[in-house]
Structure formats: C-alpha cells, structure tokens
Design brief:
This protein is an all-alpha fold. It is 59% helix and 0% strand. It has a domain of 139 residues.
C-alpha cells in the first residue's frame, strides 16, 4: 500500500527537498559534512593528491654558486680549445697553399696540412670535452660531474708542460708565464669546485 507524499513535495520532481531522515541529497547520495577535507584541501571536494593543488609540490632548487662558476670556467676553456683548433686548421691550410707552388716544398705543405687536421681533431675533442658537460650541468647526474673533473685535470697538463719546457730552455717570457699560471689556476678551480660538497649534492639531488 502506497502512502501519499508529504505536503509540498512532488514525488516526480528529483530536485525536491529530501524527506526527513533521508540519507543524502536529492539523488540519495550522502552529503559531505562541513570541515571534511576535499580537493586541494578545501571542504566539500575530492582529497588532495601529491603534486596537485594543496599536495606536496617540490620547491625549485637553484644551482649552487660553486657549480655555476665551474660551469662558466668549463665554457671558457672549451671555447679557447675550439679557437685553438680553428687557428691550427687555418695555419695548416695557409702553409699548404704557400708551399704548394714550390715544387721542392710540396710535400712539406701536405705534411703541414695533415698536422693541422690532427691538431683540429685533438683540440676539437678537448673543446667538446669541456663544452658538453658544461651544457649538461642543469640536468646532469654524477657522470657529468666526473667528466667535468676529468676535463679540468686534462686542462692542467697543458700549462704544466709548457712551463716545464720553457723553464728547461731558459726563455720563459713574463707574459707567457702569466698566461700559463692563469690557465693552470682556472683548471684547478674547476676541479676544486666540482669536488666540493655543494656540487655533490647538486648532481645527486632527486629529479622529478
């Protein structure tokens, strides 16, 4: 036996007010109470989730100053090696062109050009060894740090060998000595900065 609806309520209207004691809203779903955490931590919505509004968003981490300095030094050294490679290639090509018209020195010009190509490969490889890890400092891992330390170690050999050879000959000019010392200092600083604790924390940081 059916009962008539309460006064003021249309049984065919789904938007009518619920009956007294009904479990929820107009469709019978339970309503969320006040103060219930919801979407983004606000009441009346979905729960917050990590990475979303109100969730655990990871703060941005800036590159330490020693890492930035080491990166700049690597870029400078890489550009200098690239310029050396270009200068050696130009010098070898010029020597080949100058000696090409001399029949006796034709082979000498070819040897000069071959030596220039070898120098291009060596100096170009050193330039890439410095520039590539410097470009990867933003998202690189421990391998980038190790490569930068290796590049700095190789970069110390050139001024050391130049100073040893010049001191052995006894014709070391003041300007050349200053340039070698400056080059050596930048290479050593690159190694030191990449070996410090902030650099280790930067390259071992979690990435999302």
């Amino acid at each position: 036996m059916s009962y008539p609806p309460p006064p003021g309520q249309n049984p065919n209207n789904p938007y009518s007010a619920p009956q007294q004691g009904a479990p929820g809203g107009p469709y019978g779903y339970p309503q969320q109470g006040a103060g219930q955490p919801g979407y983004g931590g606000y009441p009346g919505g979905m729960p917050a989730y990590p990475g979303g509004p109100g969730g655990g968003i990871q703060p941005a981490v800036s590159m330490p100053g020693v890492v930035v300095t080491a990166r700049v030094l690597l870029f400078v050294a890489g550009v200098l090696w690239a310029l050396f490679a270009f200068a050696v290639l130009v010098a070898g090509a010029a020597a080949n062109d100058a000696l090409d018209d001399v029949p006796v020195a034709d082979s000498v010009g070819g040897a000069a050009l071959g030596g220039a190509l070898v120098g291009l490969l060596i100096f170009g490889g050193l330039a890439a060894l410095h520039i590539v890890p410097a470009c990867m400092f933003g998202k690189g891992r421990i391998g980038t740090r190790v490569t930068a330390i290796i590049a700095g170690s190789l970069n110390t050999l050139i001024p050391l060998l130049a100073m040893i050879a010049a001191l052995g000959n006894g014709n070391f000019a003041g300007g050349s000595l200053f340039m070698c010392l400056l080059w050596l200092a930048t290479a050593v600083l690159t190694i030191v900065f990449c070996s410090m604790s902030p650099a280790g924390q930067w390259f071992n940081r979690p990435q999302y």
